[in-house]
Write a structure and sequence with these properties.
about 350 residues, Rossmann fold, three-stranded parallel sheet, 5 strands, binds adenosine-5'-tetraphosphate
Length: about 350
């Protein structure tokens, strides 16, 4: 039996960011040969975040086309949309009876969103880590490749799974996060002390995988660096967050290490570093976009992948749900795997 890998992206935008790519997708691609990979498009999560959801299916197909253009193979992996596998929400309710209010209130992401919110914050944002726990445990996942921002949520997932196992026996596999040392928290371009996010209102903060060369160049040329005189290029995320972010981008995309880059740029100006980041990102994005625009046109193909993926995912999800219903004492045994949507 191969280890199970589960991970997801929210279609909270019709494009992904370079943060999503380096923090998660690169691992997904690497892992698909030797693991049983389940890659989700988390539309249920996304509706906690976005105001208008009329285009959510179209955004989900955009995200799927990006998965494929980055190198995800829909034969080797299960790619599906979260709302098509009904067990995610059903399991969410069961788990919410085993999670504590206090532990959810301590989630940093919730606290940050609550602080930033200009309107009343919805319960979906509060509940997000339980739905994420359900997503992961449903597939008896061993490894969850994610960015650093999701680390605390995985700790919660492990705590809930252990709590449940202590009560009912070995029901759930305890998942482990896979977070790389570099690239797991790409920062915003104009506010390098916060994470780059795909739903940022200010698009100049974010590098999108579908950005044109001109947009990429303009955004990176305006990136916040610092006012050190003489300008000096070295990696120090606390005191030099802007420069460190650029070094991280260059190292991860160019597959070099940061120490080597520090030597290369020792006596160079910040502009030289920006120029190299623009050039390497442009190469990556150009290749990816060529594939994307050809794949995205074929909605029949994309919908077929999603349909097959949801059937394959549901088959697995139902096994866990049956196990759960049994230990919780419910009488209904789930056998129906038809997939009407
Ligand atoms: N900046 C990032 N650097 C590295 N990894 C990142 N991830 C997200 N941002 C970065 C990782 O990508 C996966 C999917 O992320 P997501 O869709 O949950 O988050 P997002 O792209 O940041 O989207 P939103 O809608 O804008 O969400 P919020 O509002 O939460 O920021 C995850 O593995 C994540 O760690």
């Amino acid at each position: 039996m191969k280890p199970v890998v589960y991970s997801a992206m929210q279609p909270s935008n019709e494009d992904l960011t370079i943060g999503n790519y380096l923090g998660a997708l690169l691992h997904w691609i690497r892992m698909q040969d030797n693991n049983e990979c389940v890659y989700c498009i988390a539309d249920m999560h996304a509706i906690s975040n976005i105001k208008t959801n009329k285009a959510i299916h179209s955004s989900s197909l955009d995200i799927l086309a990006l998965y494929l253009s980055c190198g995800i193979d829909p034969i080797k992996t299960i790619a599906f949309i979260q709302s098509h596998v009904l067990e995610h929400c059903q399991f969410n309710w069961l788990l919410s009876c085993y999670a504590y209010f206090g532990e959810l209130k301590r989630m940093t992401q919730f606290k940050e969103k609550q602080l930033k919110a200009k309107e009343p914050i919805n319960i979906g944002i509060f509940n997000y880590p339980i739905l994420m726990t359900a997503d992961i445990l449903l597939y008896q996942t061993n490894i969850v490749p994610i960015g650093k921002d999701q680390k605390q949520h995985i700790e919660l997932t492990k705590a809930i799974a252990n709590r449940f196992n202590n009560m009912y026996g070995e029901i759930f596999t305890i998942p482990q996060p896979c977070i790389s040392e570099h690239g797991s928290c790409i920062m915003s371009l104009l506010q390098p002390n916060i994470k780059m996010s795909k739903s940022d209102i200010n698009k100049r903060n974010t590098i999108y995988l579908l950005d044109s060369f001109y947009s990429l160049e303009a955004k990176l040329n305006k990136t916040i660096t610092d006012s050190d005189r003489p300008p000096i290029i070295y990696y120090e995320p606390i005191f030099k967050p802007g420069i460190s972010n650029l070094l991280e981008l260059l190292a991860c995309v160019g597959k070099t290490n940061i120490a080597q880059l520090e030597i290369m740029f020792e006596f160079k100006a910040y502009g030289c570093l920006k120029k190299d980041v623009i050039s390497i990102l442009n190469k990556l994005l150009t290749a990816l976009q060529t594939k994307y625009f050809s794949i995205r046109k074929d909605e029949g193909y994309l919908n077929k992948i999603i349909y097959d993926g949801s059937i394959r995912a549901r088959k697995k999800a139902i096994i866990t749900m049956n196990k759960l219903y049994k230990v919780l004492g419910f009488s209904r045994i789930l056998t129906n795997i038809s997939n009407k949507h």
